[in-house]
Design a protein that fits this description.
disordered N terminus; alpha/beta; Molybdenum Cofactor Biosythetic Enzyme, Chain A; 6-stranded mixed β-sheet; 28 strands; about 20% helix
Length: about 475
């Protein structure tokens, strides 16, 4: 579209938008609980999820644990055979020739990876860690209901230096099954190794490999297009106008989303013009090599007159754009593809989810701390399936020991650093524009919604970042 046509289109949209605001009044935004909003994001995840088979070696090199897309049970036992837990000598604990305290003749060594000869009465066998325990080739002793055992090198007189005999010290212990790793003691037949949705952590990948698995079905990481918005935002490297600030959100959001397991395919910036926003995203999506599964945007969802995500949603309603989003529809825009919500959370209260430009869309607030809190608290596990953070109880210290306020009815999220004494120092202000104050944060403190005063020495739950 040429510049003149675009200008006419904008003018036409602006006239219709002004008329709509007169008819319908200001936007209405419903309050939604944090838990319910996470469920909305999880529903989006289910709609977008796709899977593929990958080699375990490829899964192991992924920077974040992928999630299994299949249920796996073992067709093997691990260990596959009884083996030695340490270097030593394998004997029968009830063999009178062995426990008599005199030199015991040796059979050939049982080395790891080699099948040993059977153990016979009156003999000991040198054995290495991980080597297979030999079969017993002899009659049962009178009180024999026991297994072979391994006596460690430290309980012998000369260790492996004597190649023909071993003499055990008086402190040597002959106990059935001592230092033997039994077959199937780690994984048994038909044991569950992973379920759909489980994170393929290093230990789980090792378990899968230990039963001979070479491939597994995994959910593909969501491909994300990150969109910053606002006439007031200038990209780093350009000269900002007198009333502009540099875009800090994009870099911070890309890092946080990538750490959550997203595959960020690119970034865009859109000014406060809904048609330009929609055109830019549709143009991006037209290229199959870079197509995103979901757009994550920052800004444009509050209650102002130029909130570009809201305006783009209204523009699509006026254009009759069909949408698939099945969330609760706003009375303000009953045919909208986007659902605008307010969460009882500070920062990060305004949120939106649904569809714009024919793409699944998650819209976050524009202040940088609000963006990071939203990704951490809402998107990280619900949308990208990342592993939950470890939770811990932490005592807080307030500036000068003075009390701090917290909003009634809202869960307040505060970045903080865990100090050496196990406490966390809080700052006076929790303003959502103070991004640099958070650079050394190792915790996200969770102040419950029923707390209005934070006293020095109070204890709250925190997420370990």
């Amino acid at each position: 579209m040429d510049m003149e046509g675009r200008a006419l289109r904008r003018a036409d949209w602006a006239a219709r938008h002004a008329l709509a605001r007169v008819r319908h009044g200001p936007y209405s935004t419903d309050m939604v609980s944090i838990a319910d909003y996470r469920e909305k994001l999880f529903d989006i995840l289910l709609l977008m999820s796709s899977w593929e088979y990958r080699d375990l070696a490829q899964v192991a090199t992924h920077p974040m644990p992928l999630r299994a897309a299949q249920h796996v049970k073992s067709a093997e036992q691990v260990p596959r055979f009884n083996n030695s837990q340490m270097d030593g000598f394998v004997v029968h604990p009830n063999d009178p020739e062995v426990v008599a305290g005199k030199p015991v003749p040796l059979l050939p060594m049982a080395a790891a990876g080699h099948n040993p000869v059977p153990l016979t009465p009156g003999f000991a066998m040198p054995i290495m860690t991980g080597a297979k325990i030999p079969d017993w080739n002899g009659a049962a002793f009178d009180d024999d209901e026991c297994d072979l055992c391994v006596v460690p090198v430290e309980e012998t007189v000369a260790g492996f230096d004597d190649l023909t005999h071993v003499t055990f010290t008086p402190q040597a212990t002959f106990e059935s099954g001592r230092f033997v790793r039994y077959r199937g003691s780690d994984i048994d037949y038909d044991e569950e190794l992973c379920a759909v949705g489980d994170h393929l952590t290093p230990a789980r990948l090792g378990s899968l490999a230990s039963v001979g698995l070479t491939q597994i079905a995994v959910f593909k990481p969501l491909r994300v297009l990150v969109v910053s918005t606002g006439d007031e935002v200038c990209q780093p490297g350009l000269r900002p106008g007198a009333a502009q600030i540099y875009d800090s959100n994009t870099s911070a959001a890309v890092a946080a989303l990538s750490a959550a397991g997203a595959h960020v395919v690119g970034t865009l910036h859109a000014p406060d013009h809904p048609d330009l926003l929609l055109d830019a995203v549709r143009s991006w999506q037209a290229d199959d090599t870079r197509r995103a599964d979901v757009v994550v945007s920052m800004g444009g969802i509050s209650m102002g007159a130029r909130e570009v995500i809201r305006l783009a949603s209204e523009l699509e309603v006026q254009q009759g754009v069909e949408n698939w989003y099945g969330g609760a529809q706003s009375p303000r825009l009953p045919n909208s593809g986007m659902e605008f919500c307010r969460l009882p959370m500070q920062p990060g209260g305004p949120q939106a989810v649904g569809q714009l430009a024919e793409v699944p869309w998650v819209a976050l607030p524009g202040n940088p701390v609000s963006t990071l809190v939203s990704i951490e608290v809402l998107l990280r596990t619900s949308l990208f399936g990342a592993r939950p953070r470890n939770r811990m109880n932490v005592t807080v210290r307030t500036p000068g020991g003075d009390p701090l306020s917290s909003p009634m009815g809202k869960t307040q999220m505060r970045f903080a650093r865990l100090d050496a004494d196990g406490s966390a120092q809080l700052a006076w202000s929790n303003s959502s524009h103070l991004l640099h104050r958070q650079v050394e944060a190792t915790l996200l403190m969770i102040i419950p919604e029923d707390v209005t005063v934070i006293e020095d020495g109070d204890t709250f739950e925190a997420l370990a970042l």
